[in-house]
Structure formats: structure tokens, C-alpha cells
């Protein structure tokens, strides 16, 4: 049994032909970059920035963003190398399967459900705040019972709020699920349009708001310690763990590997360029927000609108912010709904999930069944649970996956040094351990109840694996597994 749990998958030949219709290759390097920006620029810039500044780091949230960006940068380099070696849609699940064995691969894949599915729910929950603000702008009001989660997380406990359902969040998720159902080309085209619009609107906000910055709001830059994770350097590190949620989207590009025209070229380009662009935008927006008003006032569901409202001269920006936020958050949800079904598809083709999850629609060429399941689950979570709980679980699941990828690059350098790598992590013996250690450092900042929820999530995943995946694993049935990693050139 132990041998099976540690068994590595070494044949990554593109097996679309074995499963009927394959995915359609339509994405080039800038299409992949747009997916990355679409997934990264969203809740982090429009919601989490304000919460991290008010609750943890103060104006030093800029340092938090830099720390999270450095951690993500180490990981992005590792992802880029793996993407050239294993250009399929399994992302860190497939990378772990090649280096760490089946059980850990399942563990990583199960955590990726947190990364994509639950992060989309968190973004949808924050989408509601800007949507209701936009309605208020035009004199229309949605009852709070229909626009907020019925549960809230307070002092480590789930409590009821009296609300019924977060209806706007459900509506946007279902609309984008339909779009993902009909095809990657249509979804990517709309995502590209949304990315261009939201980046343009963010630049407008930064340029216009810069004139009204009061540098007194940046002093003290690192506020005095007021609690274990509030202000001081401990608050900066806790803020980094919180805003790390903002960066995880770059990894979603790797799930589109089988829809790239040239994945060995397009994926590294898209990952690294999108991460660089997004880091610059995050730092600029964080500087403007904390400069416009005192950081303590940013703990709202729409902090950018809150900052703009404080300056009558910027009142015209409110509509720009609301529209930009809705577009930006929508593109994040879209990319996550694209990513999650493709992880299920690869796990199904490995036998770890039922065969039905590996099917491709004969006309739309999308994993349609997975897309519907993903969309419905995201809608339910967004309708019930609050943003902060969902965001923390997402960050934890992602950090664990990132640790596996950074370690996996070194393992594969040792076990298969002869493999051709069109992209190589520079100074791998420095970058990879730095990636592992930085991710672990951020993981240690989460509170005990987050770990308790993560352990519960892991227990459910292990029950599914030993109840179904272990017995149906295709790798388990192979008597003579290949000894070298094999991938098909697109």
C-alpha cells in the first residue's frame, strides 16, 4: 500500500485522444497573460487591501504586498519550469504527481479546490459590496437580507447575521458559469476585454487620487503594536498572509495548458508577466488608498469607494471605481471557474475521481459537467459564507500547493536531470528553498481555527481518496510504468 501511495506518475502524454474530444488550443502568450491578470486583479485590490491595512499592517501594507509578491515570485519561477516540462491542465496537482507521489498529489489537488472554487466564492461575496454601492449611486436599494451572507465569522465562531442569502453573488456566479460552459475562446475573449477595462480604470483612480494624498496619513508608516497580529512587524507578516490571497491567480494560467497554442512558451511568459504587472498595480493602489484617508477607516466592504468619498473633488471617481471593481471581480470569478473544472478533469483521467468528470462537451469542447458542478458549488458558498473565512482558507490551500511545487522542482532536478527544460529556474538551489520557506512562514501566521478548518477539509479529502481514488487509480493498475516523463509536443 505504501508503495502505491508514493508512486509517481511519469507518463504525461496528452491523452485527449483516449477520452474523445480534446480541448481547443486557442490561447497565445498575451491571452495567457490576460488570464493571469484577470485572476489576480480583483478582491485583493478592491477589498483585501483596505482590510489588511486597517486590521493588520497600517500604511505598511505596502511592505505586506512586497513580501507576498516576493513569495509569489519564487513560486512563479518554479511553476514556469514545471509548465514547460508537464504542459497539461493539472497544474500543481500534476507537478506533485510527478515528484511527490500519488497521495500527496491528491492532497495538493484537493487543496486546489480551495484555491479555485472557494476563492471564486470569496470574490463573488465581495462583488456584492460594490454592486449594492452602484445601486445606491442610482437611488436603488437592495435589502440587506438579500445582499449579505447569513453567516459571519466572529472571534473564532460562526454566528448568524439574520440575512437570508447573498443574491447578487449567486447571480454573477451562475452567469459566468454559463459563459465558461460554452467555450474557452468566448470566455478568454470576454476576459481580455474585462482586463483591459479594469486595468485602465485602476490607472485612472491612481493618477487622479495621487493629487489628493495626505502624506500625514502615512505616519507612522509602521503603527505601534496593538495585538499579536495588529500593527508592528507581526501585523505586516499577517497582512502579507492576508494579501497573498490577491496573488494566487497567476497559477490559474497553468490550468489552461492544454488550450495554449505553445504551452512551453506561453505559460512561463503569461505567469511572470502577469505577476509583474499586478504587483505594480497593487502597490500603486495601496499607496493611494492609505494616503487618501487614515488606514483605520478602510475596513469596509468597498474601501476604494470609502477613500474616494472622503474627497468631494473625487466624487466623479466613485462611478469609475464601482464599474471597475465589478468588472475586475467578475474577471477573477471567470478565470477561477475556467480553472477548477480542468483540475477535476485531469484527476478523473488519472482515475482518482469518477469518469464522468473527465468528459468534454462534443460541440463546446469544454469540461461541461465539471463546469456546472463547480459553478453551483461556488454559488452556494458565496450565498452563505463571509469573505474573510473563505479568503483565509483559500490562502492556506494555495500556500500548501506552492510549497509542493517549489520542492518538486528540486526533486525533479535530482531524479530527472536529463529532461529538456525550455525554461529553468535561475539559481534553483537558492530560489526553490526560498520559495518553500517563505510559503511556510506565511502559513504560520494563520490562527488556530483556520488550521482546524483545514484539518477538517483534509480529512474529507482523504475519505474520498481512500474510498474511491486509491481503488480506481490508473497508475495502480499499470504493471510496467514508464521510467521517464513523457509529454506530447503541441
TrEMBL record:
One of its GO terms (molecular function) is amino acid transmembrane transporter activity. It is a multi-pass membrane protein. It holds the Pfam family AA_permease_2. Keywords: Membrane, Transmembrane, Transmembrane helix, Transport. GO terms for cellular component: membrane. It comes from the Bacteria. The chain crosses the membrane at residues 27-48, 60-82, 158-180, 192-213, 233-250, 271-296, 316-339, 369-387, 393-415, 427-445, 451-470. This is Amino acid permease.
